[in-house]
Amino acid sequence: MRIRRLSKADAVILQECRLSGLQESPEAFLASYEDVKDTPLSQVEAELADPDIHYLGAFDGERLVGFMRYVRFSRLSRRHVAEVRSVYVRQSHRRGGIARQLLDRLVEDARAAGIESLILSVLSTNLSARRLYESAGFDVYGEEPRAIRKPGGDVGQLHLWRNLSSH
């Protein structure tokens, strides 16, 4: 498995993998396939070129099988914080430690960029994701009940935080 930063040149494969994930595991995402299926490729390219958005991809050979990103806040008072978003590993490649590899590398890259803390949100029903984040040093700091409306009913959202600084 090769983990590397994604670039503007990866826009087509990122978009394909994301749409595949939204169809394969809709319960794991805030967005739905319908929400993003018509996203122009130029928007994906712009995200990949944005210096405050850091995408990583996991490759099995030449195939993108997982991705993860952080988005650094733009306000000067929040530049020391970034939010982990868009975490996905194809079902065919789950349970092989890929999400952990992506997360470990994302933490490493965030530290190198001067980010002092990472935050993220996860559906309260997504126990495997919660276990991953907590095992990587993230702590729950809050919960929003009924945060996300899904076809089967409302789902709570947990908010997690990890300190990356030495103080």
UniProtKB/TrEMBL annotation:
Q: Does the keyword Acyltransferase apply?
A: yes
Give the source's domain of life in one word.
Bacteria
Q: What Pfam families does its record include?
A: Acetyltransf_1
Which key words are in the record?
Acyltransferase, Transferase
The GO terms describing molecular function are: acyltransferase activity, transferring groups other than amino-acyl groups
The residue ranges of the N-acetyltransferase domain are: 1-165
The UniProt entry, under PROSITE patterns, shows: GNAT (PS51186)
**Leader peptide range in chain numbering:** none
Alphabetized InterPro entries for the sequence: Acyl_CoA_acyltransferase, Bact_Acetyltransf, GNAT_dom
Entries under Gene3D superfamilies matching the protein: 3.40.630.30
Name under which the protein is recorded: GNAT family N-acetyltransferase
